[in-house]
Design a protein that fits this description.
The chain is about 35% helix and about 30% strand. By secondary structure, it is α+β, with helices and mostly antiparallel strands. The strands form three sheets. Strands 1, 2, 4, 5, 6, 10, 11, 14 and 16 form a nine-stranded antiparallel β-sheet that branches. The protein has a five-stranded antiparallel β-sheet with strand order 3-7-15-12-13, with no helix packed on it. Helix 5 packs antiparallel against helix 6. It binds nickel (II) ion. Nickel (II) ion binds next to loops.
């Protein structure tokens, strides 16, 4: 499932991040990929262990932690440190078709994170730049994503994807990976849709015995399928 989550950050929060990012020391994004990735990647990143990168990552992480829709859709078990990247038309910034690595170091301690979900949080508006579409391929074809500043897209890390060349302006985003309590995308999608339907029914009709039964099924399925 691919999901657009609006308003993860407010306009003020985006401005706060951008003020610091626009003055930051960016480095070549090819530093963080293997030989295969280096051929197709032309962007800049903040070094993961730079104090500013860690501080801004925490800011993004706190916004994700308070977002109920993100939690419902991702059911996060572990997350990578949110990272930041920049695609500048001056360098023909782009990232060709690739798949994200299946495992990587995670932010909450030693060990590994399995990348079940990839997320991009937009820190610029669509009219700030031309090109720079996140293009995600799945069994239904190719989907092009370019969202307003503060919005996030969540998609399965199994998908082949790219960022098309930026031809005007600069595209600045944060991105991160999530290991979900529910590894299987189909099961995770079912739980998300059930949870959203329950919440909508509760808002529309108030509590009822049927909603308690549905909620019980949601939690019992989560208990059955979760890997924690
Ligand atoms: Ni990627």
């Amino acid at each position: 499932m691919m999901l657009h989550i609006p308003g993860v950050l407010s306009a003020d929060e985006v401005r706060h991040l951008r003020a610091q990012l626009d003055a930051a020391a960016w480095t070549d994004g090819r530093a963080t990929v293997g030989a295969a990735g280096a051929h197709v990647k032309r962007n800049e990143q903040l070094p993961e262990d730079a104090p500013l990168a860690r501080e801004l990552a925490q800011y993004v992480q706190q916004a994700l932690n308070r977002n109920g829709l993100f939690f419902s859709a991702a059911l996060p078990l572990r997350m990578s440190q949110p990272l930041f990247n920049r695609y500048d038309a001056a360098n023909a910034g782009h990232y060709g078709f690739h798949v994200d690595g299946a495992v990587r170091a995670h932010a909450q301690g030693p060990g590994w994170l399995r990348t079940d979900l990839s997320a991009t949080l937009f820190l610029c508006n669509p009219d700030d730049y031309d090109g720079g579409d996140l293009t995600v391929r799945d069994t239904y074809g190719e989907h092009e994503v370019k969202l307003p500043a503060g919005d996030l897209v969540l998609y399965p890390s199994t998908s082949v994807h790219c960022v098309t060349p930026v031809t005007r302006g600069v595209r600045v985003c944060s991105f991160m990976w999530i290991q979900s309590m529910i590894r299987n995308d189909g099961r995770r999608t079912m739980l998300f849709e059930l949870d959203q339907a329950i919440q909508t029914l509760r808002a529309r009709h108030g509590e009822s015995a049927e909603l308690v039964a549905l909620t019980s099924h949601y939690h019992n399925l989560l208990r059955e399928w979760s890997e924690i």
